[in-house]
Amino acid sequence: MESANTAAAWVVVGADRDPDTMCARIRAGGSVVVVGTPGSGRSFLLDHIRTALERDGHAPLVIRTGRTLSSVPFGCLEAAPDTRAADLREAPDRPSGLTDTDPVIVIVDDADLLDSDTARSLTARAYRKEVVILAAIAAGSLRLGESFDSPLADLWAHGIAQRIDLRDLTVDEAFDLIDASTTARPLDKATRAKIVSLAGGSRALLTEAVSYAAQARDAGRDPLTCLREVPPTSRFGELLIARAAELSGPHTEVLATLGRVAGIEFVDAIRFLPEDDVEELISLGLVFDAGAPSRHLFAHPLIARAASRRCRVGEVRARLDLMIRRMLDAGGSWWSEAIACELARRRHRGDLELESPPREDLLRRAIVDAARAANDDAQPAVAIAYAATAPPVERPDHLDIEVQHASALLEGHPSRHAVDAFSTSFRRERRLDPDAAGVAAECAIQQRGRLSRPLSPLVLLTAANAALLDMRWSIAEAYARCATEHPTSDATSAKESAFVRAMSLCVRGRLDRASQVLAGTDAVTTTTPRQEGADAVGRLIVLCGRALGMQVNGIEVESMRDRLRREGVRAAAADDRLALVWLNHLAALVFAGLGDAGGAAREARLALIRGASFRLSPWSSVTLMYVARALALLGDTSAAREIWDATATPSAMRFTLVRHAALMAEAGILEAEGRHQDAVTRTRAAVALAELAGTPLLTAWGVYQAVALGDRTENDMTRLSAIAITIEGEMGETLRTWAQQITSGAAPDSPLDRLRLAGPWAAPLVPGPARRARGHAIPLPPGTENDTGLTRREREIAQLAAEGMNNREIAEHLYLSVRTVESHVYQARMKVGARSRRELGRMIGPRQTRRTA
Q: Are residues 127 and 64 located together in one domain of the fold?
């Protein structure tokens, strides 16, 4: 484990720490004191600076500290193996053998543990310029009410030393640190998001979590699953225990209790727990507040478990018993699903002890909540076990539907139940059967609402999605409008309705109108601290749809990387397993769009493995089919075939849009496998499907693919020209231009190379608006190998930097965010070993092509 956390595996990341500036100050004779909390990276920063100083020819004197040495006069200096320490051992008021012209650089980690004699000697000699001090001090020793009477405090108080306060990692910095680590390279996006969530801004927790996850992956285990249970004997587990030990007694008890009722609403939490303690734990980052009016709380699962081990025996259980009794005594006037789930778990284990038996209706309600939560977490056997402990009732209710759904999950087929019964209970899993929902919605549209029983927006939206996947565009939009106009429609319904309408417009080539519709959903698909509506799964499905639409319309998906980070951390903090599955889907699409075959294959495989326990939306199949096609064109035929075979299930292939995506993907795979005629046959079948559904843009893609495969007919160019006029955006004209390049002999001879021309990672061949839509992608010169390990985007940004453009200019030029450009510059520097931005520019060199205006 030690090798995974060596300095070679990590880099210094953070706007609050600049090793180059600190080294320059030390070389100039100025002392530096670094102050940070445990886990803030103080020791790593000092080691990094020491290595840099030694590389420049300096020989720092390193003084070790410890609680044992701190009680011995000059104990720290005596323990130093360097002979120069003896010169510093003299009384502070007596000159040593060190001269003003030759100051010694002294590095002291955990300087708050220095013995008083050593501290006074070092401080006095720093005043006389005999030594230059680089020290690190724990922030806890400077807190109000605690003593820190070391003479080192005089250094920054009187301007002898510069004090630098280290803060916790931001989310972006945490991801940058992981991205730059060699240890973390095999880890997928969902695992990285989970690590960032568990680290909570601590560099120490992050590095150990990465090491633990990487070891699990190397051993053939799913790292995301392993991060849910960490042995206390591991280095990561020991660090978690140490973090829990820093908490006060009341905080320890409250955190341990909240860890048992994950997702409890804030208002319910403060019924039983001190509000101040709950708020303080939220501010410390140990409890995640999901926002929105309900404010669901999720305790850090691993530290909460470590905290429970530190509590007195039975203390947490007593608090939970009180919660359960008070909820039941209220007779249902207030209800907490999180507490109800704890009640069902305790009853299932047989250790629920109440003074009087609960009312049967309340007990059954609690078991319904627990069974639903188990189904949501892809644990159908647990849901059935909970249901077996429920008291019987005369008529079917929610619990029967949960049991039916759990049984269907175990047997591997959709749950068949009435689409309008208890439908509001099934939003999170989208458990409604699309066929039954479609029949009910069609009846509702025909009878104009004159039904004997009402139809919920969820049923209408399920039917709208089914119609959209069947490429029945007008019907899908009609159902979506009805859902929006429904009296009970909420923000989530509005977002899903807009998604259906936008996707319907997007795949038909009406890009401008689709963009206008999607713009109205931004308020419910962003992750603001107090958002309302849209759950994590819904947001990620919308983002997958956006990524698909962007690729079909020739728009780069680079901008989706920031959303990947934010949505991933949010889903990981709430331990939303289904959302993390969709995060793998989105990551696979983004990697495919960036031309990263390894990343796309890794994410797609994990999406299949982790999603096997869930009943996923058919959009999962559409997404993975697009990824499979990209992998075939990028050269990873085996991964493409593996993903295609796993995705092309009978239940998925019954939808027309899935069949179209499957035909286009299989054509690329077959061509890569050398089965040219089969590839042509599949492509022409895809063209026929798209034309039958009235989808000009998808028709254009199919026709271009046929031309690229060498199966050009007399009408193909005419069709492409007509489509280019009728659809919005530039993709139609781009496909027509590429097809002309092929027919004129200007394109590569290989059909696969011709297909790659239209990949989202490829450089456009047309000038003007089409290039702007694709972000000015700049290809490597023909025949040039990317031996630096840089991605195409990293090389492109490095070349622009070499031309003298700053980050903001590059961001405007490529239609990216400044944060994205900064991240690429940083990662490019790490890969090529450039110490500065200027050195990166010299190593990569400017572009060989003239920059477009």
A: yes
pLDDT of residue 197: 93
Domain finish residue from 221, 244, 267: 244
Q: Which residues pair with 104 in a beta bridge?
A: 131
Amino acid (1-letter code) at residue 580: L
Same domain, residue pair 684 and 754:
yes
Number of domains in the chain: 5
How far is 830 from 840, CA to CA, in rounded Å? 10
Reading the block at residue 325, the tokens are 């009794």
pLDDT in tens, 322-334: 899 989 888 878 8
Place of tokens 């749950």: 415
| Distance from C-alpha of 795 to C-alpha of 797, rounded to nearest angstrom | 6
Task: Check residue 261 and give its pLDDT.
Answer: 93
pLDDT over 80 (residue 762): no
Q: Are 475 and 595 members of one domain?
A: no
C-beta contacts of 465-469 below 8 A and 24+ residues apart = 465/434, 465/496, 465/500, 465/617, 465/618, 465/619, 466/434, 466/435, 466/437, 466/438, 466/655, 467/438, 468/500, 468/503, 468/504, 468/657, 469/434, 469/618, 469/619, 469/622, 469/655, 469/656, 469/657, 469/658
27: which residues sit within 8 A by CB, 6+ positions away? Answer: 53, 56, 58
pLDDT tens across 717-760, in order? 888 888 888 887 777 777 888 787 787 776 677 888 888 877 66
Question: Cα–Cα distance between 265 and 323 in angstroms, integer?
Answer: 13
pLDDT value of position 492 = 73
